[in-house]
Amino acid sequence: TVLGEAGINIALMNFGREAPGGRAIAVVNVDQEVPDAVLAERGRRALRVHLGKDVKAGLATLRKAIEQAL
Length: 70
Prior knowledge:
Elements: H1 2-5, E1 10-17, E2 24-30, H2 36-40, H3 55-69
Antiparallel strand pairs: 1-2
């Protein structure tokens, strides 16, 4: 895998989609930062969000970022 080849440990993965055949999303929680070069060399798009201590505010930031990406 892209992350495995870079020595990045995956802690958690979640997948979802709107409907069969619809847009999909994968959420990957890793133990260390994934360098931009690792994703860029494979043409992968990524969105990074650090929720921080204020989870509600962090989730609001995530929602805004996802809306902008779509």
